[in-house]
Amino acid sequence: xxxxxxxxxxxxxxxxxTPQALHYTDITDKIVADGLRSDVGATPANSxxxxxxxxxxxxxxxxxxQKVGRGLFVWKGxxxxxxxxERQDVVETEPSGAEEEDQYDIITSFxxxxxxxxxxxxxxxxxxxxxxxxxxxxxxxxxxxxYLLYDGREIIYVGRTTDRPLGRxxxxxxxxxxxxRWDRFSWFGLLPVSESGKLGKMPATYPAxxxxxxxEAILIEALxxxxxxxxxxxxxxxxxxxxxxxxxxxxxxxxxxxAALNRL
Length: 264
Prior knowledge:
33% of the residues lie in helices and 17% in strands. The protein has a four-stranded antiparallel sheet, with no helix packed on it. Strands 1-3-2 form a three-stranded antiparallel sheet.
């Protein structure tokens, strides 16, 4: 491809060629998989969501995008797009400020079942994650919030990061009484992530109505109760996938080379 698509053009291409509604994270995945954009930044899903919702707000009936559910969008000409009467119902029943419902004002980011072995454990380890494959990595070492330690898939410890950030707290668990008991961890962070991949500051206060859904979402995501048919509502679009620290890869390559030389 000689010229990279803008975010807007890439979104239009994906939605116009897809008959069914897509969640904006799936739109982002498709854009990356099809090679429509190579420069996606650190928060590509956020970019896609923002562009679509602003277009709907600003362009009204002339906008080619249509919202059909929580985080779900469709091309207006596609078969799955609601008829005009159905669109009116959606507008009337949707609460005010629904365009911002996926901005996750409490839990801004999280990672599930990350591998302990993917991190080079120092007093300030790199806790690297990507919002999407090919997105720029974000270092969550300074993130604050809640974390869980696992032995296999069993939760053996729940902790919080406040005065000491996530990276430091996890590092301490490589040397304390739990050091030999955990191999994976999950975390739920409060600090926002900018488009450049930097962590921001935590708000001084949180609106009370948002706290209960956030707490429920953390419990559902962490405990995976069988009778809950859905994941935590406020967490469905902010999960980061772990990226192995390049230092680990270098050490592995060095060990492989040394082992080969020893066999000579």
